Amino acid sequence: MKNREESFARSRGLYNIVVTSFTADGALDLPALAENIERVIALGYDGLLIGGTYGEFPAMDTAERAQLFRHAMEVAGDRVPVLLCTAHSDVRVVRELTTLASELGGLPMVMPPFVSEVTDGQIESFFREIAPLSRTGVMIYNAPGVGITLSPTLIERICDVEGVVALKQGDLQPGVVDQLVGRISGRIRLLAASDLVMLGPLSLGFDGVSSTNACALPELIKETFDALASGNAQRAGELHRRWYPMREVARRLGQPQSTKAAMRLRGFRGGHVRQPLRDLDQAGIDMVANALRASGIEIAK
User: Fold this and answer.
1) 3-state secondary structure string, the chain?
2) Which domains are present in the chain?
3) What would the pLDDT profile of 260-279 be if each residue is shown by its tens digit?
4) Among 22, 156, 170, 270, which residue has the least CB neighbours within 10 Å?
5) pTM over 0.90
């Protein structure tokens, strides 16, 4: 992407949160990343998210994250918009990665620094300092459970910062979704951060959704999104209920480890997770296999 206007125009639709594939010894598996990117682009996904929470960014150093950004952008090119997560507790790293993400043509996805007792005013000042570093603008990344949970009121303040073009919203409680749609819809793009409850925010006016489970269930989640986008809410609900067994497993065993296990069972190159996460044991893998079958997904032989 070339500028903020293009980023705003293209930050909508169905985004695949691409897992970061690691080899058994913990190295980045860049060929696997390329293969997984090509799969979802071929299926018609609207965009990609690289190096986010489920991309295990906290387990990588800055050089690895920069390497991941460069390779993902080389593979994707300008075929689809690419969100590049530049979050870190060290603002110096955020500056470095945000500048790089913009130079590469991606949209930096920025989380407020996750330090204790930071004030709303300090968070707003942080976005005012970071946004000008990116010619493509920035996306606010509100990720409860990972960092600081931004309130709708603070998000509304931040969305007035020049250069802020979108929000990836992890707090999807009905009341919060209602406030965000009512207050800032149309001013910036709104993406639901979780596919576990994707239908509600999309029906109420969110511009898109990002999905980690799409790494393992790319066809089914694309069909679900397309049904809702075409106005067939009944069909979308039927499809969403179909993969409930996988959502149940994801909530119980955690992501991205359950997603990577499902990918491997399907013959996709999901790779391994890095510590402090652990790959699923055999009992967990069996649970994922059963959930895939219950969702109508065949296991690779």
Assistant:
1) CCCHHHHHHHCCEEEEEECCCECCCCCECHHHHHHHHHHHHHCCCCEEEECCCCCCHHHCCHHHHHHHHHHHHHHHCCCCCEEEECCCCCHHHHHHHHHHHHHHCCEEEECCCCCCCCCHHHHHHHHHHHHHHCCCCEEEEECECCECCCCHHHHHHHCCCCCEEEEEECCCCHHHHHHHHHHHECCEEEEECCHHHCHHHHHHCCCEEEECHHHCCHHHHHHHHHHHHCCCHHHHHHHHHHCHHHHHHHHHHCCCHHHHHHHHHCCCCCCECCCCCCCCCHHHHHHHHHHHHHCCCCCCC
2) 4-218 (3.20.20.70)
3) 999 999 999 999 999 999 99
4) 156
5) yes
